[in-house]
Design a protein that fits this description.
Elements lengths: L1 E5 L3 H10 L5 E6 L11 E4 L5 H8 L4 E4 L6 H10 L6 H7 L2 H10 L7 E4 L2 H11 L3 E5 L9 E4 L2 H12 L8 E5 L5 E9 L5 E3 L3 E6 L2 E7 L6 H17 L4 E9 L5 E7 L9 H4 L4 H9 L13 E7 L5 H5 L4 E5 L9 E8 L2 H13 L1
Parallel strand pairs: 1-2, 1-4, 2-3
Antiparallel strand pairs: 5-8, 6-7, 6-8, 9-10, 9-11, 9-13, 11-12, 12-15, 13-14, 15-17, 16-17
The structure holds adenosine monophosphate.
The site of adenosine monophosphate (AMP) has 13 residues, from strand 14.
């Protein structure tokens, strides 16, 4: 089976590393010249909406999937007209727009932060009045790792936020204002749905961000009772069913610590907070995504213990010292260092002491 993947980043690389043992082959399409997946299959360097390149990309491919969600809708539609594309185009369109995402959560009865669409400065002033300060202004589309966001902490910040994010975006700024949620912690839930509608869920994951970028995931999340787990599974299951979803879906939540859980956003793909599943679960999120899109039975999502995943961000770590810590699983993505860039990750299973030593090494690099 040949799997076509739109995007050639580290998620594509880890998909291929999971699929090659199953006998799958991979073809990637990515505009970047030097992306992490390029040595793991055929590689086509082109823009996502280049129809000639898409023509070459689909020849002989059995199914198409993607490893990032900002694929132009036009390209997804073109592909859908030619061959099976999973997750479905509708899921992609919803996940590309924070407002559509939150509207879907609300329709399904899934609690989400209070929010208002913002297209003009007047909209922003009215929305800030309605939601109160602090609040957070975000672009509806193309934001990631905390980019395209402004936290409004005072009346003076309202205009600053508009000048930073809104001004210059034309008549329709396409923004969203959200109430600032004083959450106790962030959780994510990763579900997978097969072509025949079967579903499975990994345990809840606790995530810590630094400067808007995921720094650490712990799975299963500590102190997560059965009711919370059930609520998270129920929410992700409802979204997958509504979207007639196939593949891995990740939803990020705010845990207010009083039994209240709010859905923040969803990613229609494998997710950074699920990297621990490579060593820490019976079947990884990458393998399960491929099983789902290829029409194969799903694998077990059971965790083998408690895993800690640490992202390697910005600077090259001392890999010799990291690997001298027993039980460290190191994944480097072959990317050149740049501030804020995810270069790799480490997973440590059932060994919190090693995880803290690894975290200290990363902190010092
Ligand atoms: P996002 O791109 O929506 O995932 O936002 C990036 C990070 O900003 C989140 O992981 C949170 O730590 C924080 N954040 C986003 N939205 C809110 C909110 N409404 N209230 C408080 N913190 C938020």
């Amino acid at each position: 089976m040949i799997i076509g993947i739109l995007g050639g980043g580290q998620l594509g690389r880890m998909l291929a590393l999971a699929g090659i043992p199953l006998g799958m082959r991979f073809r990637f399409l990515d505009p970047g010249p030097d992306c992490p997946s390029r040595h793991l299959g055929e590689f086509i360097q082109a823009q996502y909406d280049d129809e000639h390149a898409l023509d070459r990309f689909v020849k002989g491919v059995d199914v198409v999937t993607y490893e990032f969600e900002n694929v132009p809708a036009k390209a997804a539609r073109w592909l859908t007209d030619h061959l099976p594309v999973f997750p479905p185009e509708g899921a992609l369109a919803t996940a590309q727009d924070r407002l559509a995402e939150k509207s879907l959560f609300t329709q399904l009865g899934i609690a989400t932060p209070p929010h208002r669409p913002v297209d003009t400065l007047d909209d922003l002033l009215a929305a800030a009045d309605a939601l109160g300060i602090p609040c957070i202004l975000k672009t509806r589309r193309m934001g990631y790792d905390g980019k395209g966001q402004f936290v409004i902490r005072s009346d003076d910040d309202v205009l600053k936020a508009w000048n930073t994010i809104g001004r210059g975006r034309g008549d329709r700024a396409d923004l969203i204002l959200e109430a600032f949620i004083p959450f106790q912690r962030e959780l994510s839930m990763i579900g997978v749905r097969a072509r025949d509608g079967a579903t499975a869920f990994y345990p809840p994951i606790e995530n810590v961000h630094a400067n808007g970028i995921l720094a650490r995931s712990t799975a299963p999340a500590p102190h997560c009772d059965a009711n919370t787990r059930q609520a998270l599974e129920h929410a992700v299951g409802a979204i997958m069913q509504r979207l007639d979803y196939v593949g891995v879906l990740t939803v990020e939540f705010f845990d207010l610590g009083n039994g209240q859980i709010l859905a923040n956003e969803m990613a229609p793909r494998v997710h950074n907070s699920g990297h621990w599943t490579i060593e820490g679960a019976d079947c990884s999120q990458f393998e399960n995504h491929l099983r789902a899109v290829a029409g194969l039975p799903l694998g077990s999502t059971t965790a083998r213990g408690q895993s800690i995943m640490l992202n390697i961000i910005g600077a090259q770590p001392d890999t010799t010292r990291l690997l001298s810590l027993p039980g460290t699983h190191l994944h480097m993505y072959g990317k050149s260092p740049r501030p804020g860039r995810k270069l790799g990750h480490i997973t440590v299973c059932d060994n919190p002491k090693t995880a803290e030593s690894a975290a200290a090494l990363l902190h010092n690099c």
